[in-house]
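Give me the 3D structure for Tafazzin family protein.
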Amino acid sequence: MPLSFDWSIPENPTRYYRALSTATIALVGTVSKLWMKYLTSVRIENADILRKAVLHRDPKRALLTAANHHSCLDEPLLFGASAPYRAFLNRQRMRWTLGAADVVFTKRSHRCFFSLGKTIPIIRGDGVYQRSMTFALEQINQGEWIHIFPEAKINLTKELIRLKWGVGRLIAEANVCPLVVPFYHLGMDSVLPNVEPYTPKIGQKVSIYIGEPLTFDDLVEKMKKENRSLQEMRKAITDIIQNEFAKLKSKCEELHRQHLTGDTPPLPSKS
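Predicted structure for Tafazzin family protein (271 residues):
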C-alpha cells in the first residue's frame, strides 16, 4: 500500500530546508528538555550509555535505539530526558525516527513539521520492504542514528508483545551493523494519558532504564556463512532484542516502583 500523500522528505534538502529543520529540532528538543527537567520527575538508569553512543560512537557505525511504546509523547520527551542537549543543536547528530503515516502525517502542516523533525512516515502493516524502511536503512548505511519503536503501536496493556521484524532488517541488511541500544520506560502514559481529552500533565514520574549496547556483527556474519535466509536473520536478531526488552522491563519496573514510593536505589556493591 503506497503512502496517500507525496513523499515529504527531500532527497537533496536545500540550505533553507536544513536551516529550518535544525531550528525545528532545536526548538522541540529544548521544550522537551525543559518539560522533563522541570515539569516531570525522571529517574534514569545508565544515562551515560546513551550519551556515549550518541556523541562518541565510531562514526562508521550507525546507532539504532529501540524502546517500548506507551504514549504519543514518547517521542520526543524520552530523548528530552535522556539524550545530550548537544544532539538537539546538530541536525546531523540527531536521530531519525519512524512515525505512523495515519497518525502524525494526516495534514499537510503535520507532514511538513514532522519531516523537518526527521520523522519518516511509515505504513503500519505494510511490511519490512516498504519505502520508509528502505529509507531508514539508507540512513543507517550513512552512519546516522535511527530510533524505532519495534512494537509498532502504543502498547496499552504494557505486556510483552511480539516485536516486528523491521528492526531485524535494519540490522541484518546494513553495510555495517549498527550499534544497538535498547531501553525501556514507564510512566509516559501518565504524562500524556491514552484517553480523551489527551491533555499532557505535569508533576508525573517517569522511569527509563537504558540497556547495554548490543552488536550483531558476529551473528550476521555467521548466519551469512550458513546461507541463512534474510527472513531467518531478521527473526533471529529481533528475538534477541525481544529478550533484551523482557530483561529491561523487569529492571525498569523495579526502578519505577522505587521512584513512585520514594525509595533510594541501593548503591552498587564494591568488588
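The longest helix spans residues 230-261. Let me know if you want a second pass.
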